[in-house]
Amino acid sequence: MLIITSAFAVVFTLWYLHFGSLTENSGALSVTGIEHPVYFTIWGVLTFAGIYGNLMFAYKKLLPKLHFKYIFFALSAIGMSLTLSCDFDYSIYIQYVLHCFGSLLFSVSTGTCVFLLFFLNYKRNKMFSVFTIIIGFILIADLILLLIFKETALIESVPVLFALIILPVLNFTSMFKDKEYASR
């Protein structure tokens, strides 16, 4: 079910992006959500379910004794709830601020939770090491681009799409499995 949810979230995200410009502020996911609030809500729910369903599965499998994941889950759920329930409309200032705060809370909580999953498994094998670096690079580059260009659909969607793809790969393929060597 997690693979289907993630795959559907990826396809829906790519489809949702066609409503706005990928590289302009007017095409940001929240801006597009003003004209298409139902699609924006579907996108948010699918994204949250796909990422956190896979994160919880991965943490349970790889780091079962670490319980901080629940804090990130709760913060992210609050963030996504605020993002989806509050209008991205500057004329309704309090809702605008809550929407932006929710979006930031979701992004930071989720990005940190994904990064920590890989970082805490860094020494497990080479794939975790490589993807810890890739995820760190994506998060830092995304933050820098966000500060320079503000919100655009491309800047917002790259880390989301990456998480929606890499987490099911981690959970349901042998790509991150420890290599077992036969004794000679």
Write the layout of secondary structure elements.
Elements: H1 2-16, H2 29-35, H3 37-62, H4 69-85, H5 93-119, H6 126-149, H7 153-172
Helix pairs in contact: 1-3, 1-7, 2-3, 3-4, 3-5, 3-7, 4-5, 5-6, 6-7
Order of helices and strands: HHHHHHH
- Rg over CA atoms, rounded to whole Å, is 17 Å
Question: How far apart are the termini?
Answer: 40 Å
Strand portion: under 5%
Helix fraction bin: over 70%
Largest sheet: none
Instruction: Report the strand count.
Output: 0
Please state the structural category.
mainly alpha
Average pLDDT rating:
93
Low-confidence stretches: none
Q: How does the overall form come out from the CA principal axes?
A: globular
Count of DSSP H/I helices: 7
How would you explain this protein's 3D organization?
The chain is an all-alpha fold. 74% of the residues lie in helices and 0% in strands. Helix 3 packs parallel to helix 5 (93-119) and helix 4 runs antiparallel to helix 5 (93-119). The longest helix is centred in the middle third of the chain and has 27 residues, at 93-119.
What would the keywords be for this entry?
184 residues, 74% helix, mainly alpha
